[in-house]
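[Solved] Which block belongs to which protein?

Original post:
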Amino acid sequence: FKILFQIMSTVEFTNFKCTSLNKQFTDFEYCYLKSVNRSYKYLSLKVNLFKIPITKVSVNFAFLKRTNGYKPFLYNVTADACKFLKNEKSNPVLIYMYNIFRSHSNMNHTCPYNHDLILDKISNDYMNNHLTNVLPFPDGEYLLNTHWFAYGIKRAIVSIYLTLKH
């Protein structure tokens, strides 16, 4: 007899936080985690930009894993977002991070940004694909922490908390 097993993994969002560090420059119109049913959740946010156009943006992406507090795990990358969007193939790690939200966002062009920024309905299923099929992660509690800078000044922090189980 041959027995075949399929290992299923699941991502569950546990929290979503958005913090504006300068409300005269930017603020969040909304930032929420919506639970449609027991197995389907999604994240959405809208950032209002008050001093447009924005021509210089950088971002820090950090994956952290919870082990007696959140500790660095795998990636902690800071990059000039404007430069990266002009040549996306310049950094494979940034491509991986950017692809997490690219198809659900209007942040898909080079600088300048002269409009509000939207991240629309990133589902747990979509994140599950990125954290299990694209680049497999071990079980655990994770935090994807992003710090957004404009003109060298930290303007916002967006944090996605999730659990991965196989």
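(Second protein starts here: sequence line, then its structure tokens.)
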Amino acid sequence: MINAKHRTTFSARKKARRSLKSSKSSKVDTLRAKIESEDRDWDDLEGYVYVYFDGDEMDISYDLEDLPEKCQDDECYIAIHEGDCDDLDDKYHKSGNKVWDEDDTGFSTNKNGRAAGMLFGLESGYDANDNVCRALVIYGPEDESDDDIDVIGCGMLVPEDEDLDYCD
């Protein structure tokens, strides 16, 4: 049974969530995404990515496990997309701010398929509020059968202090 204290807390969180979703005036400066596998070859892929904003400039911190071993930064990279993890749309950036590719957001993994690090000074033309509930995608090496770089992981960007199911 939910006691009055928990009911109030739940109600307050729900109201805050609704307020942030409907109002661009709420200041958000850190988003996070829990990354989960999107490819049966990488079933155990997991980790977190944090995106820190200063206006429309962002720094990305990532800590990921069970990625392809020894993936190089021209094979593995991070991108933010419109849509959600089940229905990805275009990469999310204003024209002239083409930031989501292996040159700007590439990373390397170690022999155990682990990657952790920071990407600094990225500009997509959008601030934190614009990126709430966008899909953060992890791309992996080309699939030899079709020569396309594969989506191997994905998570929805939520405000740092919100529950991970915020976008549902």
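Accepted answer:
You had them paired correctly. Confirming on the second one: The longest strand covers residues 46-54.
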